[in-house]
Specification:
76% of the residues lie in helices and 0% in strands. It has six helices and no strands.
């Protein structure tokens, strides 16, 4: 059964709500015999999540090293700065990009998927860790007195200047990180769209053959 979206309902069609349509199309993708036809649809969200996990590790490690934290609070900082961006990236990409694509919610705007994918990637893999990373490092440095830092209750401008000073040497790496995230999300989303077109084309071919065979049997 091919998934069809439109105002005119074909004869003998099975009406599905959005949740049922989502479950159906993902079952088709999961059970598809030729994995080369659907590899991006299946694995792109997890690959992008892995990329953001690596970015979270790098950002967390940089600020921890700058503030000489050693092993203090390491596990407590890894989970929100590394694991959460990876998980959220995979979930948001799968739901807001891949599933929308499979359900043809924005079939006339392929560039919308790439923009949305890039926003998720940079938001979860750069903006999110760049807020939590420095804050967590400052909190632990203040608690364990591992580095001289301004009092957290002082003028916010003083703290901002302090963070800008320790971040400046890392600017090149951060820029490369963002460009890499945008490139990865754009490339993988492009292959997801190719997989989606190929999958739908093959499903239509299979249904056309079935209909032709039924017509021959009836005659």
């Amino acid at each position: 059964m091919a998934l069809y979206k439109g105002k005119e309902v074909p004869k003998d069609a099975v009406i599905l709500d959005e949740l049922e349509a989502t479950q159906y199309i993902w079952n088709v993708v999961s059970d598809w015999e030729n994995q080369s036809d659907v590899w991006a649809l299946q694995y792109a969200p997890f690959v992008l999540g892995g990329i953001n996990a690596v970015c979270g590790i790098m950002i967390n490690r940089y600020y921890r090293q700058k503030l000489k934290l050693g092993t203090y609070g390491y596990i407590a900082s890894v989970v929100p700065i590394t694991a959460m961006p990876a998980l959220l990236t995979s979930l948001f990409h799968r739901h807001l990009v891949t599933t929308d694509m499979l359900l043809m919610k924005k079939e006339s705007c392929p560039i919308c998927y790439e923009l949305r994918s890039g926003a998720i990637q940079v938001g979860m893999g750069f903006a999110y860790p760049m807020v939590l990373g420095p804050l967590a490092a400052l909190m632990y440095a203040n608690r364990y007195n591992t580095a001289r830092i301004p009092e957290l209750t002082e003028n916010p401008r003083i703290m901002f200047n302090f963070l800008r000073k320790i971040t400046r040497p890392y600017t090149g790496t951060l820029t490369f990180m963002v460009l890499g995230q945008v490139a990865a999300s754009s490339i993988l989303t492009y292959f997801e769209m190719k997989n989606n077109f190929k999958l739908r084309g093959k499903i239509m071919e299979i249904e056309a053959k079935l209909i032709a065979n039924e017509g021959n049997n009836d005659s």
